[in-house]
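Researcher: Structure for this, please.
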Amino acid sequence: MNPQPRIAYLVSQYPAVNHTFILREIQELRKMGFDIPVASIRAADPMSPEDRDEAAATFYVKPRGVAGILSTNLRVLFQRPLQYLRAMLYAVRLSRGNLRTAFFNLAYLAEAAVVVDWMEREKLSRLHMHFTTTVGLLAARLAPMQLSATIHGPAEFDDPAGFYLAEKIRAFGLVCAISEFGRRQLQKFSQPTEWAKFQVARLGVDPALYSPRPFRENPSPFEILFVGRLTAVKGPEMLVAAMDRLVREGRPVRLRFVGDGPERGALDRAVAERGLSAHIIFEGWRNAEQVRAFYQQADIFALPSFAEGIPVVLMEAMAMEIPCVSTRITGIPELIRDSVDGLLVAPGVADELARAIARLMDDSGLRLEIGRAGRQRVIEDFDLRKNTARLADIFRQAG
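Model: Predicted structure, token format:
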């Protein structure tokens, strides 16, 4: 029997409260016999006991400090001066004359050298990436390695030149997209000769962990939940505007934002200006266990994003039989079929979002039906174990 592949994972931050799906993916691959050492560019988020065990086994790049990164780069430079200088020139060429971009690329090269040094000490030759593909691209300029990545989108598809998408596709032996939409976008920005590299590897959740929460037929107040980064692309301001309409209609509603981000200050001001402070609560970041507790209280889940891959938080909510309202964009319709597994609305239209929420508030039978259908959808197509087994097969076939 052939041994399972040994694959290094390179992640932007690990473990991270907003990327728990990466932790789950790695854990499932290890259960299947894969040896998955992990390197993380940034330090871990505040951790649960489970995360602390994972962090103890993770190699961290930036926490080594400037002195540690510099000494490693000097060692790599002396060991392979030609490759290092060529990699520097390549990093500068990628910047296309932009000095700020060149500076960042050289910083990524410094991180790449630390990753290469770690891989060589651990005798690793395969590297798979989530959210760190430029570091990986430059690492391959310093040492021979087999590269693969999971491209989540949509940022890479909105700015393919800025993310060096064509260069990465050429350099990587395997590129996984998390949706059919993502695969089509990869095709859009590459040559047909590269298309055989593209595989759809859907994310997933554990339906046993995210089990159905109690259904409330006539809740008061009606609990709406948002989980995610408070960034403009997630559309949280649309939820505030929709809440304003619902409250003015006299509806007993309460919205909880679980997460944080750059839009928090603006959202705080908007809530105060609209007089919604009694109806909208900012809970901040919470770990996975705490988020599940918020799901337990939710009557619906709302995510009015302008751009997404396929959000794992939607899968989590659906697995718990929470009816979801989201937007008809990118890969989301591959998860939610409108009026079957959830409700989909146009992005940026607060009135339509409010009407969809009101429809669910007014029809407990529809909430129950959609909630059950959503869980079945996850079990059939977005089950963590099934989809990680598919990823494992992809890794094996890639050699």
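Researcher: Any notable elements?
Model: The mean pLDDT is 96. The radius of gyration is 22 Å.
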